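ok so I'm stuck.
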Amino acid sequence: MPNLHVHDLRHTGNMFAAGSGAGLKDLMARMGHGNVRVAMIYQHAVRGADQVITEAIDSTGTRSRRR
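replied:
not stuck anymore, here's the structure
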């Protein structure tokens, strides 16, 4: 692919890693960065986990009130 760069592949790999649930330190080690800010960019891009967590907490609260 003529418009594909090595950085694009690196970015895609980091997005997959963040999407898998990798923590900041894991992402930093994978990317070779000592800067938390860079790793957080990838984690923020896949923040869908927040919704899953919220739904799980809501579900737990609902079950507790039913008892």
